[in-house]
Amino acid sequence: MKKIIFLLALLTGLQACKKQNSFLDGQAITLDENMVFSDSIRTMAFLTGIYSDIAFSFNKGRWDSHGNTEQATDDAEYTLSGVAQIAVILYNGSISPTTYDSRSIVGDFWNTPYTNIRRVNLLLSKLPSTPLSASLQERVKGEALFLRAWYYTQLLIAYGGVPVVGDKVFGKDDLINLPRETFANTVKSIVDDLDKAAALLPVTYPNDIDYGRVTKGACQALKSRALLYAASPLFNGGCIIPGHPAEALVSYPTASASYWQAAADAANAVISSGTYSLMVDNTTKPGYGFYNVFLQRVNPEYIFGYYRAPNRDFEGYYNPRTRGGSSNRSLPTQDLVDCFPMKNGLQPLNADGSINAASGYSATNPYSNRDPRFNYSIIYNGSSYFNATGGLSPVYTFVNGTGTIPAPTATQDAFDVGTTTGYFSRKMCDSMISANSSANTNRAWPLIRYAEILLNYAEAINEAGQTALAYPKLIELRQRAGIDPGANNMYGLKENMTKEEMRAVVRNERRIELAFEDHRWHDIRRWKIAMVTNNQYNKVMKITKNSNSTYTYERRESIRRHNFRPEMYLMPIPSTEINKMPALVQNPGW
């Protein structure tokens, strides 16, 4: 299938390029705005360039080729600990407006969105004069408006209200001193762009060459996400310092359940459209649809994705070193492992950490009879995984007898190539290829999928006070996961839950269903639980092999403590931006 998204080079105005080893050596070719937007191919390539950054936050190599925000959560341990590593800066709490600088790579929280917002505005300003047909201009406008909303949503969850530039295109000589927009108006700007874009875009595209472009459903889905963020405790009812002068810039000052209802309605619009569905296959294996959805470019569940050529993207990052994986990666924590229920849908542990006897969990055989999503998300001690010789063999993660967690021999996963948590990630990986094999998978990165929309609805409708309406969405997810229905067809869910009980279930379901999909960092902040989750040592599993070939499993604390301060619920605006634009107001506490 031909894909044009992300395969064309970005052609920007005033950018010099040079063709090497030709008669043009030593000569710069300058493409000004007229050259770009007077040509249809270059105009479309410019749009493609705006698409090319959409996965900057999701990217497993976001920083220094091997880090992103998942390593600053309770889901994953980072294998590096250098104080200059950006993931370390996030998890150890050393972030500040100066160390977190727009000129450094961590500045992509601020720079990447605004760079692309300017690109969108430039495209919109030139679009009427391009040689594109009228109908194509309308479609391109819709795509551009969505992309602008996409990048503003990234800013919203990081900072709250931000400067909203409208359609303005600033030049290099302009003196810019924009104040921040209120939180409410920033949300409104995002929603307005998405509503306009949805009216201009098709439900689907008629040919394969346009597959992967923004659709009406993507606009509705992003609206669902933005409104869910906005309704969350971090933003719904004031800021971390009550009465702070910036309160209206970073929140709705007065809490209201109506924001939750708006988020539920937006999610329901996607659900009611009938355009998307979960990828279900419990015939091949229980929960196989959950595994297979990440290996298919075209599937009914992906609403918006980052489309790549055939690749081993996730295998290269997550696989053990014995399978060719990188040593600089995220390692799943015991905290995450404990969140996965049993196959009967019951949680293995009680809230106090004791074993839930009704679940069937065994401390001596902890990975047996778990939710099938666990097997497709985590490589645990003894898991079978493809190897470079073309077969399946176990990955061992037990200690080597010296107290270190990595496995015992170099042919397995020894100290220098091992895991400090007892686990490797399998999420989104193709278990029939490895990083050191020659095969690739035809996949896309999942930026928005239908499972998120079901979870958005369940969370929002529960918080809006209609807990019973959350059940069907959770049951749909658990049925696809391959969990047993039980005699009451509740898939392990407690009947007649209170809003508080349902909140805990929805948050846990979101954590395991969307693990490593660029949600946890946003979720622990918007729920205002990071002061708990990120002021502790993550849990790991020490596994010891006994003389009789059985194993002893012991939960321990990681050697790396995470630290979180209240002001970290919102990112600090880089000091360089404050210095350039005095009208900006810094976030509370920074």
TrEMBL record:
Coiled coil regions in record: none
Record-annotated SusD-like N-terminal domain positions: 104-226
Cell compartments where the protein resides: Cell outer membrane
Keywords of this entry: Cell outer membrane, Membrane, Signal
InterPro entries: SusD-like_N (IPR033985), SusD_RagB_dom (IPR012944), TPR-like_helical_dom_sf (IPR011990)
TM region(s), chain numbering: none
SUPFAM superfamilies for this protein: TPR-like
Primary subcellular site in the record, as a coarse category: membrane
Family, as annotated: Belongs to the SusD family.
The protein, known as: Putative outer membrane starch-binding protein
Organism expressing this protein natively: Lacibacter cauensis
Record lineage: Bacteria, Pseudomonadati, Bacteroidota, Chitinophagia, Chitinophagales
